[in-house]
Amino acid sequence: MMQNEAAGTAAQTKYDRLVARAKTEKPALTVVAHPCDETSLRGVADAAALGLITPILVGPKSRIEAVAEEFGLDISAYEMVDAPHSHGAAEKGVAIIREGRGEILMKGSLHTDELMSAVTASATGLRTERRISHVFVMDVPGYEETLFITDAAINIFPDLNAKRDIIQNAIDLWTGVGLGEPRVALLSAVETVTTKIPSTVEAAALCKMAERGQITGGLLDGPLAFDNAIDPEAARIKGIQSRVAGRAQILVVPDLEAGNMLAKNLTFMLHADAAGIVLGARVPIVLTSRADPVRSRLASCAVATLYASALRRRPQVRAV
Questions:
Q1: Do 301 and 310 touch, CB atoms closer than 8 A?
Q2: CATH number, residue 144
Q3: Do 178 and 301 belong to one domain?
Q4: Which site in 46, 234, 305, 315 is 20 to 30 Å from 31, CA atoms measured?
């Protein structure tokens, strides 16, 4: 087998390994908010059939049942909680989590903003003392490792303290799903520190914070440009001596715009799969898109289930 073919075969198994590992855990009780179209309801049915989740469907009961009947989906075994509309489904889903009846919150066919508004509500939401952030779990053809990119979906221009939480969330997820100690690259345009590019200064400060125990569980290096974060030869040519450079597993981007463009470039140019999960709330939150392929949906559920299993075994971040 040629080298690029071997790399492609390896890339195709990254999500499969996550799903296989999740199937060995107890299915996580998953509250699904407003699964009122074929894509969202079929994703739930597929994940439940594999033993990844045990669903609680929250939304207009008659509408969910009509979708299931139209597309031949058997949902008779799932608990269903009636809610009048998408806004009510989001609020009721969050309330069920607060009651301790769910381990994962999953987005159905409502808008992300609608769900996250209920999650972040000050009096009734799921906030903790940790900043809420998003992680793309990427399966990139030709790249040996599963790749995390954060934050490319929630925090637009995070400050230093927010980036500390973003990094810690991603490290906790990586270790929680059983992938070991991660190598974390703090990305910028260059690998040298300069006041002309604030993200390089923040990257250096974050590395010092890790040295002082303010970020734990991973190996940090930065600033690193994208090429010398993921390519060993680029790092060698630049003379960067680092256990992270050229071998990064978690890529921390300067801001949402950079992260979103990076993730979508990998998805559309390299045909990478991108699962998504939100961290920093009381439970992991699965954010799916209508455009997500089945593999990405199942991988999102698998990662959330593995993380929920890890949370059962250790203290959680304090709720606020």
A1: no
A2: 3.40.718.10
A3: no
A4: 315
Whether residue 115 is found in the same domain as residue 15: yes
**Surface-to-core class of residue 46, CB atoms within 10 Å of its CB (0-12 exposed, 13-18 middle, 19+ buried):** middle
* Whether the predicted pLDDT of 14 surpasses 90: no
Residue 11 has pLDDT above 50, yes or no: no
Helical spans, DSSP H, in the chain: 3-12, 14-22, 38-49, 61-70, 86-98, 112-120, 160-176, 198-211, 226-230, 232-237, 256-269, 294-312
The sign of the CA dihedral 131, 114, 96, 79 is: negative
**Alpha-carbon span 281 to 317, nearest angstrom:** 8
Question: Which residue range(s) make up the domain with 145?
Answer: 131-278
Check whether residue 81 and residue 194 sit in a common domain.
no
| Amino acid (one-letter) located at 102 | G
CB 258 within 8 A of CB 278: no
Specify whether 270 is located in the same domain as 138. Answer: yes
Residue 10 confidence (pLDDT): 44
State the Cα–Cα distance between residues 309 and 43, nearest whole angstrom. Answer: 20
The total of structural domains in the chain comes to: 2
207-235: pLDDT as tens digits: 999 999 999 999 999 999 999 999 999 99
Q: What's the pLDDT score for residue 295? A: 83
- Condensed to tens digits (0 to 9), the pLDDT of residues 230-242 reads 999 999 999 999 9
Q: How far apart are CA 257 and CA 230, in angstroms?
A: 20
CATH number of domain containing 38: 3.40.50.10950
Instruction: Examine the domain organization and report whether 121 and 140 are in the same domain.
Output: no
Q: Which of 114, 131, 132, 143 is nearest to 10 (CA)?
A: 143
Q: Is residue 6's pLDDT more than 90?
A: no
